[in-house]
């Protein structure tokens, strides 16, 4: 009967992101290709992180350190992805549906963010989700009423959207050389990642605080994105 | 599988997994729990099997009232009942099964004093064990030797049953783990999730019956290797010297094969026989110069339809080697004295002439004979009565005038033989002199077939006293009138006979179990105070070099598996006679037990609904959002 959990948590984690994918991205082959290539960039960053983790044995149990260097690596690869995108952009805009649109770069950033988000969602949560087919559950340390499956599903769902927003903000920041936007992305990425440590802490209702912090960061990021989109139209 | 190998290999596997830190959701308790296993014969199946792993919420039951309460209780889901051994009755298990809430059963064999203390008397076997294969199988109203038998061994359960037997750190921690989980669930009224559950899997490959299962190669014959030994190294088929057989069965049976621990049954007789052999080997007269041969036989697989003794008797009466040398399916390729088909490592057993067998002394249960021993016979024939009187007299001589060995029929009723190996001999020749020695007169002791009675000094005394009488009687019989007293010094340490799992396991060529190996080495080394050697080539004739000495006995293993089974020319076992013993053991798919937390179904349905609603809302949101964006920003 635990297929219920599998589908429930699976839909919670990936449902919103997949509905955007199928209703928006999948219709456009160019966007799909962009998404896949950005997913590949994220994958390289996490590969490097795991190599570091694997080689330096004392790091094994220290999640704080692992988060530190893997966030830095992800941001570096985001910057690399942006540079490559800039080189490809003229060509990409040429074959875009609407070459004259002001929002082609934002649209590219959006799907690149989806690539980062979906791939991170799959890598970090899917193994856990597969476990949920078995009969056992593990209760979340900080919220003993919730299972790690559902807490993980919430976190994954939020992180996919965080990645979308971060990518849009950082593309805007990089292209305009806006230090405020770039530092917001890096700092909020650290903030959101460290907030997930609350899930497994012994703080009472820690996972609720963690998810609330992530939602707050997501809210602010969405605000920034909307603000910058409006700014683009005004220019 | 052999119990020791099985346990140690599981331990290794367990430690590996633990070292990798994989155990997170599940704690594996497989190595420290004991499964009930499926066996089959020509008519059907017994024991436990579940086609799928069963997850059950731990539910403690301590009394029969608890069972009624559980059945009447309004609960959702499947439960793993944790109960003491003395509640293991067929009716209780069937009641639990019919409640449709039963997932599996965990039996506590020796719990702590406040929960499930070890029952003082408990026999899961039939009221007349193996009588359907015995000498009196065709008689109506056979005497029931084990009236308190519960018949559990012969039942078929289609749900898993596991036993917990805390005796060391590992097993005790498993026991505590399960008991704590059950107590937590009780505190949560079995309704406030998360609850502690176990997954029990008893996946056995077997199906239908022995012949089907053997044909599909999902079963192996129950049995192993019997051991026979004689000091008459020159024994031959045509020497016309009478043979005195001293016999005992080595194995016994239980619902949980790995926990077949009964010392009184099986092991006590084996030790008495070894003590007799030891005593006689110290004889001043050279034993092979005696006018009669003395043959020691320890049969294996006896608990499963007299597999060892019936196979031995049929081989010494009618064996016909059809293919000499090596043959397909026979692992003994280079034995000069072997046979390719039927596959035998050696043919020394053909030197034993069945018609020369004069008398049989068999040890049944002899561990609790502090009040005396009883001699059981098939009929009160002259020779049988003579032998009983002889033993009675000798016991009186040993014990300062008061005899302690009596005829079982002294109370006026001859109940004939209890289930015993002698029956296989009498089957061929009903007029043989055969005495079965036991510590019981009319009922097998309550621990029959599953005793956990740990050996103590009184048991050692009991075994020594009957061994003493028997050794002297055999000695007297073997040399005719020139009777001389032989001192018996049996030095048994009680730890030697403790906690020996002696389920016979499955038959494999050249793979004797723990107990046969011990008996073989013991019997082989008797009379070995002879020439020192480094290899068997240093010794004369057929002698073998054992522990630096040339041994002066013929000691061999002999195949033991059901009389109704035969190996064909391809080396595959098959059922040839469904009326005889055809017990086979299923091969195992998995036999695991693990403990973990489960969430309620309500919880799971909520999760699913939440996921579905979230997805539907986001689909609506995407469709609406695209429209809005088009309007305000003219993006896509």
From TrEMBL, chain A:
Organism: Gigaspora rosea
Protein name per UniProt: Gamma-secretase subunit Aph-1
One annotated GO biological process: protein processing
Family to which the UniProt record says this protein belongs: Belongs to the APH-1 family.
InterPro entries: Aph-1 (IPR009294)
Xref: Pfam families: Aph-1
Keyword Transmembrane helix attached: yes
Bilayer-crossing regions: 6-25, 32-56, 108-128, 148-168, 180-197, 203-230
Predominant localisation class: membrane
Membrane topology type: Multi-pass membrane protein
Automatic annotation (TrEMBL), chain B:
A GO CC term assigned to this protein in UniProt: plasma membrane
Gene3D superfamilies reported for this sequence: Zn peptidases
Record keywords, A-Z: Glycoprotein, Membrane, Notch signaling pathway, Signal, Transmembrane, Transmembrane helix
Subcellular location: Membrane
Transmembrane segments: 608-625
Residue intervals of the Nicastrin small lobe domain: 35-205
InterPro entries listed in its UniProt record: Ncstrn_small, Nicastrin
Family classification: Belongs to the nicastrin family.
Protein name in UniProt: Nicastrin
Organism: Gigaspora rosea
